Amino acid sequence: MEINSSNLVNKDILNTKKFDNLNVDEIKDEEKLREISNDFESFFINQIMDVSLRSSNIAGEEVGSDIVKSMYIQAIADKSSGTFGISDMLFDFLSKNNK
After folding, report:
1. Could you tell me the keywords of this UniProt record (predicted)?
2. Stretch 18-36: mean pLDDT
């Protein structure tokens, strides 16, 4: 299997997340910073799962199975955000360096 870097990142998810319109003043608010850190972790988990499950048949092979698979992956990523430690590291780094 050839890995093409343009296929590694699901660009649709990038467009739906809040990372594009970040404001430095909003990042200083701890609650907003925690939310952004968790959103990034969710995005990161989603990307890992999308790449690793790309060739699997967890949603079957029928029409629409790709949509079901992406919804499944997104749900797992959203529920798992904040549990892997990536968001904690990002939160700590940003809160220390943005003061």
Report:
1. Cell projection, Cilium, Flagellum
2. 72
